[in-house]
Design a protein that fits this description.
With 268 residues, this protein is an alpha/beta fold. The protein folds into 2 domains: 158 residues, 3-Layer(aba) Sandwich (Rossmann fold), CATH 3.40.50; 95 residues, Orthogonal Bundle (ProC C-terminal domain-like fold). The chain contains 12 helices and 8 strands. It has an 8-stranded mixed β-sheet with strand order 3-2-1-4-5-6-7-8, sandwiched between helices. The longest helix is centred in the C-terminal third of the chain and has 22 residues. The radius of gyration is 22 Å and the shape is elongated. The two termini are 36 Å apart. The site of NADP nicotinamide-adenine-dinucleotide phosphate has 27 residues, from helix 1 and helix 2.
């Protein structure tokens, strides 16, 4: 029995490449299917994993089924597909779709795991948060942790925390990318070459975050290490305070949480 991917786009590609690179599964242990068949064919050509002719064929041949299509496709699961998923472990990455809505689609599945991954998963540097529909057996827990471990770090959370996690780590990469972009633009405006500005800002970000991770120091403590009274960093941070950037981020996180809640409602 295989690990089967329904949906073979960006996220399925990130997971399969992670599993293959870390030699957790071999190509012959995975199979995929997609809507038009185009992305499944491309993923199979790139990785050597198997191709199923249909979703039902995939479910019948897989002990673990990873749902990696768009959230609205959950509503296209047929009663035949649902019945074929009896006793399967379902792992789902569909943004905003609750465990309850998955259970309605797959009522006889052995267990369902809802996961919020993020895009750095593509290079094994992602972070995922996950929750089980019911207490898992040891084998299922280990399998989920191994699979998500191929994408980077992973943390088990309660489903009620999924909206805030979506805002922090799901959307987070976009915040960091925009942050680098804004700093680079400001530097370019003042005469630094764009390419160099992006490199400086990027390496500063990587180094600072690695320092925080390796030392375990609190972010506020590390800020203090950079600032000297009336110095240059002091001037910069005082200006950010005047612009209330902590308030801006708080409001932005609130908007993301609200949108995530909205998307999880039926008939959104
Ligand atoms: N990308 C991220 O960073 C990220 C982060 C968190 C969660 N997610 C979630 O991950 C899921 C996939 O995202 P993605 O970025 O990988 O999307 P994507 O690249 O657009 O891939 C979507 C896949 O779904 C397939 N598909 C379309 N209709 C289908 C159907 N009726 N049955 C089966 N497969 C069908 C597509 O196949 P064809 O194109 O070949 O038809 C394609 O392989 C989404 O639910 C999203 O919410 C993504």
């Amino acid at each position: 029995m295989k690990t089967g991917f329904i949906g073979a786009g960006n996220l399925a590609r990130a997971i399969t490449l992670g599993l293959l690179n870390k030699k957790i599964l071999s190509p012959s242990e995975m199979i995929c299917v997609s809507g038009s068949g185009k992305t499944a064919q491309a993923l199979s050509d790139e990785t050597g994993i198997g191709l199923a002719n249909s979703r039902i064929e995939l479910i019948k041949n897989s002990q673990t089924v990873v749902l990696a299509f768009k959230p609205q496709h959950l509503d296209t699961i047929t009663s035949e597909e649902s019945a074929a998923a009896e006793d399967r472990l379902i792992i789902t990455v569909l943004a905003g779709r609750t465990l309850e809505s998955h259970q309605a689609a797959f009522p006889t599945a052995r267990n369902i795991v809802r996961v919020i991954p993020n895009t750095p998963s593509r290079i094994g540097k992602g972070v995922s948060a996950y929750c089980f529909q019911k207490a898992p057996n040891d084998q299922d827990r280990q399998q989920v942790e191994t699979l998500l471990g191929a994408l980077g770090a992973c943390y088990e959370i309660q489903e009620s925390k999924m909206h805030i996690v979506t805002a922090v780590s799901g959307c987070g990469p976009a915040v960091f990318f925009q942050f680098i972009d804004h700093i680079a633009r400001a530097a370019e405006k003042r005469g630094l070459e764009r390419e160099l500005a992006i490199k400086l800002a990027t390496e500063t970000g990587i180094g600072s975050l690695e320092l925080m991770k390796q030392t375990g120091q609190a972010p506020s403590e590390l800020v203090d290490e950079v600032v000297s009274p009336n110095g240059v960093t002091h001037a910069l941070l005082e200006n950010l305070k005047t612009s209330d950037w902590s308030g801006i981020l708080d409001t932005a996180i609130e908007a993301a949480v609200a949108r995530s809640i909205e998307l999880s409602q039926p008939n959104r």
